[in-house]
Amino acid sequence: MIDQDDPLAGRWIKSATTSQQCKPAGDNRLRVNVSKRFYIAQFIGSSLNIYESAERVVHKKAGLSFVMFEGNRHQLRAPNDLGRIIDMALSKGVYVNIGGIVLDNKWRSKIELFPFIYITTKAALKNFQNEYGSERPPHPDRRKPKKK
């Protein structure tokens, strides 16, 4: 496992390469309220790192699910959204690691998708634009353009 500091996001990046996907793990705490296990998808500019996981209590507001992570509220996103941002990242040539598996364009048979939160910073987005030009970075709220 590689632990390194990400100066753009201000947090440690945990990453590794394995032959089997590491699924989101719990933290062995008993919770009274409903909780979910999820990945932490961290966009770093030239890579999408989805190695860390957590378990948190789920809060609902306006039909959306949120979790508290590192003192901030993040939207808990659906597994299908994870597949969409992986496709977006790979189409732009961004390195993607999910649960220890380095992905290529034939990733769908290699992994299982889980809920996730998406973390990025303005500095990481700027790094992406410096490296890839004016292209828009992968983001779960971005939909693929409709074909005419």
UniProtKB/TrEMBL annotation:
<keyword id="KW-0614">Plasmid</keyword>
<protein>
    <submittedName>
        <fullName>Uncharacterized protein</fullName>
    </submittedName>
</protein>
